[in-house]
Design a protein that fits this description.
Distance between the termini: 75 Å
Order of helices and strands: HEEEEHHHEEEHHEEHEHHHHH
CATH architecture of the domain at 59-133 and 186-351: Beta Barrel
Strand content: 15-25%
Number of helices: 12
Shape: globular
Low-confidence stretches: none
Structural class: alpha+beta
């Protein structure tokens, strides 16, 4: 039998004499305000929840490592990719997108796939989804899109009218909606799905030569999806099914793994490719740019505390390392700001000093103060720059590779507006069973829409992608 000699203390270390009874004036009270232990407990309890994420609120995470298996130093000078066999610690968070913190895991929704690499040159965050494309391609539409996935301001219920009204007026969403309504819309577990960086990024090598790159994490467990009826049953009986599955798989040593591959496009091809390579609603053909193996990611350790690690983990597509840079992808450009700004609001200005987010590389800058500063705040060192006291200086050798821009400053759309070819190609690649389930899922999702013009507008998009697909959806909805 173990003996515990530890005393219960206040948050400042003073021993607590009684944790069962509050201090009162006599046996019936009232309670005395001098009971500082009671006040501290209640005040802390009132503040135990940070605001949940606006999107990707419900999620699970795990620690692991990434190991390089192929030499790609011809394409990037990124240190964590510099040698075959090199290992880098990672933390990965999987999530649903639209639901609240307590929502079910097995809903039809994209899944977030965010990887934090703790490299020797700082943290690199690759923040993507389990789909290679997205619903929109300009960040200015993101707040409106997410509003449609949230609750009606009067009824506080999910609103199919808003969902399909927005999609029907945003034809660029068709490719992602087709994926969402397919079998892939409900993964069997977080372990049985692919992950994608989704956006186009830039790699730069040691000689300053750049290429465009897309990331693909291929699950080694195989892709598995959930039947609609089973997913609905699990949502009621075990809403934390995916979270539970990931935790127990790792706990028993069944470590999930993914092979990381990339597609590489020569810099000059961006001007001539048949789709705009920076449009996140489009994929690059793997016949044109085959997958090249980079390495292997393994998750082998569960968090010890969910809040400290999973809930407080902050990821930003703007967390780059030398050798990896942004592309002109308009959606990515907006995310470079929005993610870190969300973390400053939700977790605090010093979220990068929280252990789960703290890089293993040394941090040297002139940022000081702010709520919840959890390190030495720079101590007595110099706190401005430039200075003549030997403070850290910029490293011009890591300057971002310049790229050419042209045109007038204006609100400009992408040049290419073919939103139908890739969605139609995806449908035609499906076997008969997959096609039928896709149509059944679309029909079931659109039936609650109470405006026929919204349905007709969306059906016209499906018809332009594939005549038969549009016709079958119309028939399923009982529309001409």
């Amino acid at each position: 039998m173990s003996t515990n000699n530890k005393h219960l203390t206040t948050s400042f270390g003073a021993p607590v004499a009684d944790n069962q009874n509050s201090m009162t004036a006599g046996s019936r009270g009232p309670t005395l305000i001098q009971d500082v232990h009671l006040l501290e407990k209640l005040a802390h309890f009132n503040r135990e929840r940070v605001p949940e994420r606006v999107v990707h609120a419900k999620g699970a995470g795990a620690h692991g490592y990434f190991e390089v298996t192929n030499d790609l130093t011809a394409y990037t000078k990124a240190d964590f990719l510099s040698a075959v066999g090199k290992q880098t610690p990672v933390f990965v968070r999987f999530s649903t997108v639209a639901g609240e913190l307590g929502s079910a895991d097995t809903v039809r929704d994209p899944r977030g796939f965010a990887v934090k690499f703790y490299t020797d040159e700082g943290n690199y965050d690759l923040v993507g989804n389990n789909t290679p494309v997205f619903f929109i391609r300009d960040a200015i539409k993101f707040p409106d899109f997410i509003h449609t996935q949230k609750r009606h301001p009067q009824t506080h219920l999910k609103n199919p009218n808003a969902v399909w009204d927005f999609w029907s007026l945003s034809p660029e969403s068709l490719h992602q909606v087709t994926i969402l309504m397919s079998d892939r819309g409900i993964p069997a577990t977080f372990r049985h799905m692919h992950g994608f960086g989704s956006h186009t990024f830039k790699w730069v090598n040691g000689e300053g030569k750049a290429v465009w790159v897309k990331y693909h994490f291929k699950t080694e467990q195989g892709v598995k999806n959930l039947d609609v009826a089973l997913a609905a049953k699990l949502a009621g009986e075990n809403p934390d099914y995916h979270t539970e599955d990931l935790f127990h798989a790792i706990e028993k040593g069944d470590y999930p793994a993914w092979k990381l591959c990339v597609q590489i496009m020569p810099e000059e091809d961006a001007n001539t490719y048949r789709f705009d390579p920076f449009d996140v609603t489009k994929v690059w053909s793997q016949k044109d740019y085959p997958l090249i193996e980079v390495g292997r990611m393994v998750l082998n350790s569960n968090p010890t505390n969910y809040f400290a690690e999973v809930e407080q983990a902050t990821f930003s597509p703007g967390s780059f390392v030398p050798g990896v840079e942004a592309s002109p992808d308009k959606m990515l450009q907006g995310r470079l700001f929005a993610y870190s700004d969300a973390h400053r609001y939700r977790v605090g200005a010093n979220h990068s000093t929280i252990p789960i987010n703290r890089p293993k590389a040394e941090v040297n800058n002139y940022q000081r103060d702010g709520a919840m500063r959890s390190d030495d705040n720079g101590g007595a060192s110099v706190y401005y720059e430039p200075n003549s006291y030997g403070g850290p200086k910029e490293a011009p050798q890591h300057q971002v590779k310049p790229f050419e821009v042209s045109g007038e400053a204006n609100s400009v759309a992408y040049d290419h507006d073919d939103h139908y070819t890739q969605a139609g190609d995806l449908y035609r690649l499906m076997d008969d069973g997959e096609k039928s389930r896709l149509i059944d899922n679309i029909v079931a999702a659109m039936k609650p829409v109470d405006r026929e013009d919204i349905k007709q507008r969306q059906i016209e998009h499906w018809r332009q992608a594939d005549e038969t697909l549009g016709q079958r959806i119309a028939e399923g909805l009982g529309l001409a």
